[in-house]
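Support request from a user on the community tier.

User writes: "When I paste my structure tokens into the form, the page sometimes reloads and wipes my input. The last time it worked, I copied everything first. Here is what I submitted, just in case something in the input itself triggers the reload:"
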């Protein structure tokens, strides 16, 4: 079942994002025209899930003086409540890792929407830390975390371009494939 879900996500990524350059151009054009990430999500056919609650003694987000939002790490939680698990380079492909990172981006967008009420308040995605659960000899973490970064640019245009670290981990909580935390400037 898990592999079917991963394959379905990978297929959606291939179909919906196969031409990332075209998606990026449309997203960048929106910044020059009318900035509306909510509309862009609808154009991409993305319906945000309900933001998941923290599973321990922490919060989803913290703001400083109402200008910067620090998002706690989130993973690739699926609609049925399960997570995409496994190690990229061992039992997951780069494409499956990319799909997991993209799903993680959708989950972080849900947190942003819950915190802000409207994604139009995002002034800029500032910094992203992408952690990939991977085999010890795997070196393509950036290609995996691109699943997160590409969606941020597709939704926010140039405002979604961010500084980033993409690192490999020997393990992640509950065996999830990817975890991403972010810092976002807000209005």
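"...and here is what came back when it finally went through:"
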């Amino acid at each position: 079942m898990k592999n079917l879900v991963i394959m379905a996500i990978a297929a959606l990524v291939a179909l919906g994002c196969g031409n990332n350059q075209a998606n990026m151009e449309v997203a960048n054009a929106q910044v020059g025209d009318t900035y509306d990430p909510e509309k862009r999500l609808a154009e991409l056919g993305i319906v945000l899930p309900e933001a998941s609650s923290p599973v321990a003694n922490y919060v989803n987000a913290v703001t400083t003086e109402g200008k910067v939002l620090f998002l706690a790490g989130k993973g690739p939680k699926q609609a049925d409540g399960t997570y995409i698990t496994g190690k990229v380079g061992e039992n997951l492909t780069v494409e499956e890792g990319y799909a997991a990172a993209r799903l993680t981006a959708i989950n972080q967008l849900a947190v942003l929407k819950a915190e802000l009420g409207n994604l139009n308040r995002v002034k800029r995605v500032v910094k992203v830390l992408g952690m990939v659960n991977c085999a010890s000899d795997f070196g393509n973490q950036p290609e995996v975390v691109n699943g997160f970064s590409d969606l941020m640019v597709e939704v926010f245009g140039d405002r979604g371009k961010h500084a980033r670290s993409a690192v490999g981990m020997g393990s992640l909580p509950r065996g999830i494939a990817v975890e991403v935390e972010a810092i976002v400037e807000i209005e």
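Agent notes: The reload is a front-end session timeout and is unrelated to the input. Residues 1-32 have pLDDT under 50 and may be disordered. The chain has five helices and five strands. Escalated to web team.
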